[in-house]
Known about the structure:
single chain; about 500 residues; alpha/beta; Rossmann fold; 6-stranded mixed β-sheet; 19 helices; globular; binds 6-O-phosphono-beta-D-fructofuranose
Amino acid sequence: MTSDHWQAIKAIPKVSLNQMFEEDGDRVASLGLEHAGLYFDFSKTHLDESVVRAFQKLADDLGLSAKTEALLSGEPVNISEGRAAEHCAERGTGNPASVENAAALHQRMKSLIEVIDAGVLGEFTQIIHLGIGGSALGPKMLHQALKLGDEKYELAVVSNIDGAALEPVLERFDANKTLLVIASKTFTTAETLLNAQSVLDWMSEQGVADPLGQVIALTADPDQAVEWGVDETRILPFSETVGGRYSLWSSIGFSVALALGYDVFEDLLAGAAAMDQHFQDAPWNQNIPVLAAFADQYYTQVRGCETRAVFAYDERLGLVPDYLQQLEMESNGKSVTLDGEPLVLHSSPIVWGGIGTDAQHAVFQLLHQGTHLVPVEFLAVIEPGDSLSPAHHNGLLLNCFAQGAALMAGKKSDDSDRNYTGDRPSVTILLEELEARSLGALLAFYEHRTFVNAVLLNINPFDQFGVELGKQMANKLAAEDGNQLDASTEQLKKRAFGA
Ligand code: F6P
């Protein structure tokens, strides 16, 4: 019975972090794990041997090994949609036919990049990448993290249906030099298709003779893209079994591979493959994604934490919290188990965050003294991303480490306003260098951690029916019968559009 395991986990005496450090001189060595250019410090969490052992029993009971094997061998783990979740096949682990197919599609992507680089399709220097959710967050985050600033192509990623997102790009870009990349797994997403039509209209207005000749489509539904008007030679397909929020490894990564170079994309895949290997092989008590998920579940279910905060102490990684919000909340924000029963545990914590040191002067007050206990994750890079005085990067890293230390240690004061309770957990993830390999490994770590959390919750992390109702309502509201919605919504519609 999994409930017995949860009871056992909840019954473990709650020892403070300070006491754990006092009692175990090896804590940093045993909870500091290194792999693929990344160092993970779990020592400032409440994980200890007894907690890890209890979670191992729970994971065993829930079939974590068999479920991992099923995921990594391409079995249909996404049971509500009756299909596999094959993002790992994109980096070489999975059902051999899927791995071969992914490699062939990558090859096709590489060839198209060579053709574009050679100027065969036109003299392009600017790329507009349109997509939303998983079709935008990954490429945008990767580009911000890895661009050096001297690239041949300028890339703009636009997602929102709000014209204020697209218009400034159109004002800045030259239509004749712009390649339009439409990224949509389904090729039916309203925001993306409206933005795409507006870019085509702009190209026509600017005198481009054949706007569709400047379009590349990235999709799992090529027929839909052809029907929309894209020439099939300029469609880069990917497998239906690659979920949107797991898709940056597929042809959804095309714009980044074009803008930064295909070798960068290959390094990204190699870094992810190194983490896949670790996830597959390492025993659970030394398995980085598994330990991270144990800590997540400990804080959510045992300590009642409803959120987790992620702070990137590096401007280049500033979009990682946004990316993780979709990955974790769209995957694990569920309320039924794999057996269709109501989920009695709390599902995904709310993931939020920002950039250090900015956030220290804005939201850290609550983290240090608020009544919510918020597990914090710090992301930092040892090699600086700037060439200014080392004082900048040193100050950045020292501030990062100081926050974790202060959250944990606290400080007693007789003045209650100036008292810090401490015992507030954090994980620090240090990248030796920010390059495609280490970033690939980091993102694969997050994917596997999300998966292990789903196994511990006994839910399906690979569907997202929750977003459908809002889409249906938007369509209904746009149609004539939209006036038959609730009185409040009708009133809002009247105010905005008239009767
Ligand atoms: O609305 C949610 C969602 O389906 C995400 O899961 C997905 O990443 C995004 O929309 C975009 O979908 P598509 O790639 O099909 O345009």
